Amino acid sequence: MEALTQIGESESTYLLLDRGLQFRITDAVNSMYNFDFERAERGFQVMRYTYPEHPLPDFLMGLSQWWKIAVATENKSHDALFLEYMDRTIEKAEAMLEKEPDNKEAAFFLAGAYGFQGRLYSERKNWTSAAFAGKNALNYLEMSRGEEELNPELLLGDALFNYFSVWIPKNYPLLRPVMLLFPKGDQELGLQQLEEVAENSFYARVEAQYFLFRLYASEEKEPFKALEITSYLHEKYPNNPYFHRFFARQLYAVGRGKEAMEVSLEILKRIEAGWTGYEANSGRYASFFAAQYLDRMGQYVTAKKYYLQTVAYGEELDFQESGYYLFALLQLGKISLDQGETSDAKRFFESVKEHAKRKHPAHKEARDLLKKNKL
Predict the structure, then answer these.
(1) CB 62 within 8 Å of CB 87
(2) Range(s) for CATH 1.25.40.10 in the chain?
(3) What are the Cα distances from residue 134, in Å, to 36, 115, 116, 168, 275?
(4) Backbone phi, then psi, for 299, in 5-degree steps?
(5) How would DSSP label each residue in 277-308?
(6) Does the domain made of 246-372 have the CATH classification 1.25.40.10?
(7) The domain 1-144 is classified under which CATH number: 1.20.1070, 1.25.40, 1.10.3470, 3.30.60?
(8) What average pLDDT does range 64-68 have in this prediction?
(9) Between 20 and 30 A from 14 (CA), which of 65, 126, 274, 372?
């Protein structure tokens, strides 16, 4: 009975657990994930007036900036404002922790804010700042653990800790000494916890789904599970270019080429029409998936158009070493060969050799085709 009383008291102090607030800001949160940032940020600004000392409104404002960054990471125009909001989150959460040293909610926001900062610093290859932010995030993740019976919002920290405390030493050996300072995690449990957060949380649901589909698509080799999540996210937030792009990618990954092409053509239309967040990075994915299906269907003229578009987007982004760019060039060379355009074919194959590392499969195939066809 005493334990139940303690849980009730904790719930009453955590703004994260305020169901009335969740109901009031559902529209703002959904608008953010649907890339209607103006509407979302109006709602978050109202929260800042209502709860001026709480980190939640600033965290959500920072999260809004993060999604502007995530869809086109080469664009640095949102970095400063993102970092400013996360710094404010940290400052307010630290003030909460000074008043109440065991406040799990404050630790959650500190872990989240430092974690997001670390993600940006890593993206910008600012490794010293990334390491500092990452170490702080891990410290506060550890502090925020252990209240999963309270609320799934706080379980996200446990989930990420369990998964990545095992994943990081395997993939980044240089960080093993840092990870030895923390308890050993459990990757399988981490995935289960992410699933629970994705199912039951309010603020952390979409972020958990984001991590899940990325992990299922790559680390866990579960492409159909990744497709299920991206399909849901695209249906729920149809104007989010990031989810739109990865829905097309997962359709392509599981062999549903025609559907991948149809979704990709819609992405390309939105880029042409100037929709928010639809830009060159989405374009290079979409152009490649459309080209691949048309290529397989023998529609070489149209396929060539989309391969050329893939190449153009890759050059716009300076992504000439990416697989999409290199294999688009390779296929352009093959189509040119079949059409008797040997000088074009040679140019495309030589371009592959110029941009690909020698051990890359595209480099080897381009070399072989040049030799075989005496180009």
Answers:
(1) no
(2) 246-372
(3) 30, 6, 9, 11, 34
(4) -90, 70
(5) T--HHHHHHHHHHHHHHHHHTT-HHHHHHHHH
(6) yes
(7) 1.25.40
(8) 96
(9) 65
CA distance 246 to 233: 10
| HSE (side-chain half, CA atoms, 13 Å) at 27 | 7
Alpha-carbon gap, residue 197 to 347, rounded angstroms: 51
Query: What's the start-to-end Cα distance of the chain, in Å?
Result: 82
Q: What's the CA dihedral at 357, 360, 365, 371 to 10 degrees?
A: 40
Asked if 59 and 113 count as a contact pair (C-beta separation under 8 A), the reply is yes
For 139, the token pair is: 């410290």
CA-derived radius of gyration, the chain: 23
| DSSP code of residue 182 | S
How does DSSP classify residue 74? T
Q: Which DSSP symbol is given to 76?
A: -
255: left (phi over 0), alpha (psi -120 to 50) or beta: left
pTM exceeds 0.85, yes or no: yes
Alpha-helical regions (H) of the chain: 2-13, 19-33, 37-50, 55-70, 79-99, 104-123, 127-144, 152-171, 176-179, 187-200, 205-217, 223-236, 241-253, 257-273, 280-296, 300-317, 323-338, 342-355, 361-372
- C-beta atoms surrounding 9 within 10 Å: 9
Q: Identify residue 325 by its one-letter amino acid code.
A: Y
pLDDT tens string 137-173: 878 877 876 665 556 777 777 777 776 665 555 555 5
- 37 by Cβ neighbours in 10 Å (0-12 / 13-18 / 19+) ranks as middle
CB neighbourhood size of 371 (10 A): 10
Q: Does 2 score more than 50 pLDDT?
A: no
What stretches of 64-160 adopt beta strand conformation (E)?
none
